[in-house]
Task: structure prediction
Amino acid sequence: MKLRIVFAAAVVVGSCGARAYAQDGRSVTEPRVPVSCATLTASLHHSNGKLAEADEMKLDTQRIQAALDSCTPGKAVELKAAPGRDSFLSGPLQLRAGVTLIVDAGVTLFASRNPREYDTRPGACGVISTGGGGCKPLIGGTRVEGAGVMGDGVIDGRGGESMLGSNVTWWQLADQARSGGTQNNPRLLVLSGCDNFTLYRITLRNSPNFHVSYSGGNGFTVWGVKVYSPKNARNTDGIDPGNSTNVTIAYSWIDTGDDNVAIKAGAGLPTTHMTIAHNHFYSGHGMSIGSETNGGASAIRVIDLSIDGADNGIRIKSNSTRGGLVHDVVYEDVCIRNTKNPIYMDTHYTATVSPEQGRIPVFQDITLRNVRIAGEGRLMLDGFDAEHPLKMSFDNVILDAPASINVMASHASLTVGPGSVNFRPQGEDVSVSGNAAGATPNACTGKFVPFPR
Result:
């Protein structure tokens, strides 16, 4: 299967025959699993997704890390089941350039529940403090080119299980931090400056914090990946690429307690040329850009997406403490249902008074094409002010139940057509131009499918 990506050109995507606009500058094809340099067999067994308490200190960290360290670039370390044994238990691992970690079908790599394994300084992980940064991730990579994590197995962060030596789970710690401070919980994968990194077919679940954070890289492919955490698990983002270029997230399923995908665009390297194609989102906070946009985000294409039962659908969020220019963003062939905020353009996201006021969010050249929304909800079209309006176009955007959708708009310059648009936003400093002459609504046939358990 091939997903051909070219700048601003209409192409046939994969084998589905759908025409779309893609923006990753690479020609992206379905990844291949490399041959193994080492095969490690499981020594533990889980029952209903849990390890025996007596096995909680039997870590496989050292032998997995030793295999990664000695593997030849271009090959892989494979985690394999053995008769009656299907589990590995590990603390933090560091990937190496050109080396792939493979978790075979039927195998689960469990994260240690011991906060001390993840400490960046003594006692820093598994606590609430005035700042974050207290935990190493389970799997980390720093400037390792051509590495990856693959396989049909599972990596389980165990966010809903109690930390060792405590009766508090990672997610409960995150909830406790709502009243003040920052929870220090490990992320599942943190990848920094890792060019040409690949996630393929792996299932990632129950991360104590974000599942995947990718930053500062050129070339990131996510293909056929499943991400799951409960909808009430705080700050469990699915996949967050930021300050990176040439990113594709394709043919994946994401069901989380926070942003399904959040494109981060803080100060630093450009955040640009990203394609999010042929994906299914479930619970979560939607297909997001932000809240950091002060570095600017552009050339982003979201193609063939279903969002089912989320808090937010299509969302761009920022405020005057972290805002910047977001432009050249196209959402095409998107089906949304049973989502509280199907379209949410928010330039005053969690706005607070700050010495950094003045980083104004500017959202312009935002296009929605062939989008259909079923169910009740709210559309928020919020420009910052009269000097910095939201500039957005709607082409064949249909609400199945327009009377059940509350459309709120301010400081917005909107264009409709040529396809039908069956709502007309009104509000302070809102203008609507164009001619929506008619089109067949997106059929959304086959879009909504169950999460593959």
In short: The CA atoms of residues 147 and 264 lie 22 Å apart. Residues 38-434 form a domain with the Pectate Lyase C-like fold (CATH 2.160.20.10). The first strand starts at residue 2 and ends at 4.
